[in-house]
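[SOLVED] Predicted holo structure with coenzyme A

Edit: marking solved, answer below. Original request kept for reference. I posted the sequence and ligand SMILES and asked for the 3D complex as structure tokens.
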Amino acid sequence: MRRATPDALSEIVEAVATWPQTGGPVQLHPGDLGWNASLGAQELAGALRVWERDGQILAVGMVDDDSGLIRMALAPSVDDDAPFAAQLLADLSDPVGGVRAVEARSGAAFRELLSRSGWVADESWTPLSRELLEPVEDCGLSIETIDADTVRDRIVEDRVAVQQAAFPNSTFSLERWHAMAAAPPYSQARCLVGYDSDGNAVASVTVWSAGKGRPGLLEPLGVHRDHRGRGHGRAISVAAAAALREMGSSSATVCTPSGNAGGVAAYVSAGFRRLPDVTDFRRTA
Ligand SMILES: CC(C)(COP(=O)(O)OP(=O)(O)OC[C@H]1O[C@@H](n2cnc3c(N)ncnc32)[C@H](O)[C@@H]1OP(=O)(O)O)[C@@H](O)C(=O)NCCC(=O)NCCS
């Protein structure tokens, strides 16, 4: 295992982007790295752990120091690789690393080994997915889009304001938006802001492509607290699916805590299929 440096971010993001599979588990995605890049490239790199074999990146983990959770992405080629799984577990079991919980939604051998080694079920997450073969219906809101090439200050301000009004403890800011937009993953991302018929910015989402033919990710999505219960959550989820289809994604995916009834309901209402809940693993000893 090695720690990442800011100049290795592009290479890591490129590797992680090749792993999501249509219909497969919704594991750590380039979009998750992209969203965390809003904290700064140095901070993101400091949180990343990289596993390689023969010079090829095969697994990446993103550590949250506060919770002790590491969120893992594994290459499909090591899904059944027991020796590789054993190496991962050995590295994560080092008490100096401080890992107390693991998000491992793919990697059959790794998941099996965690269960066998006394790691127990932790927080439950609900993945959802909408296939993008067919054109996506109109969402009903007026949508403004910001990608890496078209930054309009007013829309960015609205993007940030909706985020703050949707997530009570949000620390998102203009500075953080610009840090996110300057990082490698955002070259394949867009922010969408939804406006109601009175011109209020009511909903926002950031969508992340992993390249053509692969699943894209919604992270994060929110509706302004003063404008909820009017179909805007459904609408911005539909708009996100449409944007990802335009970007060539095979499906639109998202994962939300299973206890977030409103989030799950909004995605289902927008045509996303609810997939079986999946739990993180928590260390018991
Ligand atoms: C979740 C959220 C996006 C819903 O936005 P919203 O504009 O109120 O949702 P909508 O009005 O479009 O409702 C869509 C569906 O969800 C249902 N719903 C909305 N909030 C709900 C709640 N708290 N509990 C149960 N169902 C709920 C609605 O009844 C509706 O169902 P229907 O289409 O079958 O009638 C909004 O509450 C929010 O921003 N929450 C904080 C951030 C968040 O959780 N984001 C999503 C997960 S990352």
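OP edit: The mean pLDDT is 96. Thanks to everyone who chimed in.
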